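pasting for ref
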Amino acid sequence: MTVYVLPLLGGMLLGLSAVLLLIVNGRIAGISGIVGGLLAGRNTAASAAFVIGLLTGPLLYAKAFGHLPAIAVSTSWPAVLPAGLLVGIGTRMGSGCTSGHGILGLARFSKRSLAGTVTFLISGMIAATIVGAFR
C-alpha cells in the first residue's frame, strides 16, 4: 500500500497546481500550450515560472528524500527521439496534451477533451500491445 502514497501525493499536487493556475491566472495547465507560448513569446513570465517549477521539482524531491527517483529507460535513443517528435505532432493535431485535456479539460466537462483523452488512452493501449508483441 505504501508504494501508492508518493504517486497519489504527486497526482494530488498536479491537480492542485492545475486548479490554482486556472483560478489565479485563468490559464489551462497544458504543458504543450505553456511551452509553445513560451517559445512564441506569449506570457513569458508566467510560462517561464511554470516550466522552471517543472524542472526544479526533481531537485526538491532529491532534497526531501536524499536521492532522485529511480528511472529506467529500456529503449534506445534512436527510438526515443522519433517517439518524442510524434508526441509533439500529436499534441498539435489534438489541440493540446494529456495534462491539458485529461486534467482540466475533463474537469470542465469539455467534449473535445473527453474525445482527446479517450483517443490518448486507446492509442497508448494499442501501441503498448504492438510493442509487447515484438518483445
